[in-house]
Here is the input.
Amino acid sequence: MNCIMLTGATSMIGCALIKECVKNNVCVIALVRKDSSKLSRLPASPLVKIVECDLDQMKDLDSETVRKLLPDNAKPGTSPDGQATSGAIGGRAAAGASPDGRATSGAIDGQVTTGTIDCFYHFGWTFTDHEGRNNPEKQEMNIRYTLDTISLASQCGCKKFIGAGSQAEYGRAAVPLNGDVPCRPEVAYGVAKYAAGLLAAMKCRELGLEFNWVRILSVYGTNDSPATLIKTFINNCKSNEPMKLGPCTHQWDYLFEDDAGLAFYILGNHGVDGKVYCLGSGDSRPLMEYLEEIRSLVNPSYSGACYGAVPYNEKSVTYLRADISSLSSDTGWKPSVSFRDGIGRML
Here is the structure.
C-alpha cells in the first residue's frame, strides 16, 4: 500500500495501525474530531496528514480536501517502486498541509495530485459509554455514519473499505468466534455493529469497493481507556486500592494493540474481498489468570482483588475466544506479543 485513510485515528487500534503504516512508509490521511485532545498520540511524521472532521460531517467533507493530500508517486524524489526516499511525501512534506499536518485549501506544489488511496479503515464510532451502548436511537446514528464514510471513501478514490466490528455482534456464544458463527446481539451496540457490517458490505458492492469486516474481541494496550479492566487493575495494584471483581472464571481472549494494528495493516494488502474476520489472540484462559499475571508484574504483594464480590448476571459473556485460522491462512498474520510482554510495555 502507498496510502490509507481512516476514521478513529486517535483510537487505540487506529494509532497502532498508523504506527505500522509509518514504519512501512505508507501515507496516512487521518480523519479526527475537531479539537481532539488525543492528537499527541499520533506519530510526528510528514507521512501523517490530519483532516478535522467529525463523524456527522463525513457526508459533507469535500473529497478535494482529501485528494490534495494524496502522494504523487510520479514526481521526482521517489524510488522506482513509488516509495518516498526521504520519509516525506514525494521526498518532502506536502505544500498543501499546514506545519502541524492539518489539511489546507492549497494543493501539493499547487496541483491536485493523482495518487490513489489503497484502503479506507473505519474505526470511528460514537456513544460507546454504558448508556450509549444501550440506546437504540444513538446507535442507529452509527450505522448512518458508516454508510457516509463508504460514500466518502468512494468519492476519494479508495479501492477498499475495512470496517471495525465487535464481538458484541455475537451476543453470548460458547464456541470460538469466526465469520460463520451466528450473530445474536443482545445490546444496541452489538445490533448496530452487525447491521452496519451487513449494510456496509452491500454498499461497497454497489460502489465497487473491496470490503472486509473485522469483529474485534478484547484488545488492550498503552492507548486503551483508563476505565478498562486492565488499566484499572494495574492502577489499583500500584496504589494498593481494593477492587471488587466478578468471579473471573470465564474464558477470555486478549490481544495487544500492536498485533491488532499489524493485522489491520496486513488485511489492507491481503484480506479476501467480502470476508468477515475475527480478531483476537486465538487463545483463551480464565480472566483471573490474566489478572494474577498483572499482579505478579506490578505488585506481587497486592491482596486487594476481591474475586466474586460482583456476581455474573444473566447476560454476562462467559466465553470469548477468536478463531483466527481464516485470518492467518489468508494473510499470514499471527500475534507475536505475549500477554506478559504486552503488560510490560504498558508499565
